[in-house]
Amino acid sequence: MKHINDFMKMKVSGSKIVMVTAYDYPSAKFVEQAEADMILVGDSLGMVVLGLDSTVPVTMEDMIHHAKAVKRGAVDTFIVVDMPFMSYHLSIRDTLLNGARIMQETGAHAVKLEGGGEVADHIKALVKSGIPVVAHLGLTPQSVAVLGGYKVQGKDSETARKLIQDAKKCQEAGAFALVLECVPRQLAEEISAALEIPTIGIGAGASVDGQVLVYHDILTYGVNRIPKFVKQFSNIGEPILAGLNAFVNEVRAGQFPENRHSFTMKEEELKVLYGGKV
Ligand SMILES: Nc1nc(=O)c2c([nH]1)NC[C@@H]1CN(c3ccc(C(=O)N[C@@H](CCC(=O)O)C(=O)O)cc3)CN21
Ligand SMILES: CC(C)C(=O)C(=O)O
Ligand SMILES: [Mg+2]
């Protein structure tokens, strides 16, 4: 299993870090089998597995419930768990209690949280307490209500400069990696060159140190809207629907189950059961 030091080395050597989200036992098993470097139990689970409109309603209980299942499916992969909305803002004490719950109850290796300078003290406190932190800048979906939608961030020189400063603050606070979501590729390249810690991009172009995508987006698995930065590497919706349609049709047609899909009783047991009147 790769660990924090390996991700740092991968940046230096130029080998790309591959991160994929997973939300349950089977998805974690598949991502581990595909040999991704890291699994992210993303709060995007609120949207792709719970059917919510945003990641804002996702709770600590949701994250822990799903992360425990992911850990059972991926015993040998580095696991990062998103800290959900408002779980790292109230006080340093609350942040530490929530970070500790994620680490102790799920067996995760690190947590991820959204924001820059405004959460730097919380990143610092977590790292000082022994909890590795991945930072997340650019489009930070937990702030969608403030950002006014899922929009590309850092398109003008002023907001770009702010993002570069925030990225440096995350590194200074002790984050060991930084997710950059939905920022212009030139800005992502600039931030990646300016930092010693690896950057992991989603909609941030190719000049970052790694890539992350949502499991359901990669596979086209029950997703409604696909962002521009997603490549649909396969469409598992088709074989899923084909299998389900076949089951429904065969039951209705009396073709399933066949005898080989069921169990039988010995003739003598049947005789006893019917009082010898077989
Ligand atoms: N399925 C899924 N994939 C994700 O990557 C994802 C989620 N859900 N949920 C949580 C956040 C929300 N994310 C999103 C959602 C939508 C766009 C989007 O539609 N972006 C526009 C760009 C808008 C602009 O031009 O500024 C796009 O066309 O891609 C981007 C990121 C990323 N995360
Ligand atoms: C999209 C990634 C970076 C994420 O934060 C999530 O899946 O929740
Ligand atoms: Mg997230």
UniProtKB/TrEMBL annotation:
Record-listed 3-methyl-2-oxobutanoate binding positions: 43-44, 82, 112
Binding-site residues, Mg(2+): 43, 82, 114
One GO biological process this protein is involved in is: pantothenate biosynthetic process
Alphabetically, the GO molecular function entries are: 3-methyl-2-oxobutanoate hydroxymethyltransferase activity; magnesium ion binding; methyltransferase activity
Residue positions of the active site: 181
UniProt protein name: 3-methyl-2-oxobutanoate hydroxymethyltransferase
Q: Which Gene3D superfamilies match?
A: Phosphoenolpyruvate-binding domains
Reactions catalysed according to its record: (6R)-5,10-methylene-5,6,7,8-tetrahydrofolate + 3-methyl-2-oxobutanoate + H2O = 2-dehydropantoate + (6S)-5,6,7,8-tetrahydrofolate
> Top enzyme class of this protein?
transferase
Q: Does the keyword Protein biosynthesis apply?
A: no
Q: How does it assemble?
A: Homodecamer; pentamer of dimers.
E.C. numbers: 2.1.2.11
**Is the keyword Secreted assigned to this protein?**
no
Q: Tell me what organism the protein belongs to.
A: Mesobacillus foraminis
Question: Where is this gene product found?
Answer: Cytoplasm
Q: Which CDD domains match?
A: KPHMT-like (cd06557)
Instruction: Give an example GO cellular component term for this record.
Output: cytoplasm
Gene it is expressed from: panB
Query: What cofactor(s) does the depicted protein rely on?
Result: Mg(2+)
What does the record give as the function of this protein? Answer: Catalyzes the reversible reaction in which hydroxymethyl group from 5,10-methylenetetrahydrofolate is transferred onto alpha-ketoisovalerate to form ketopantoate.
Pathway the protein acts in: Cofactor biosynthesis; (R)-pantothenate biosynthesis; (R)-pantoate from 3-methyl-2-oxobutanoate: step 1/2
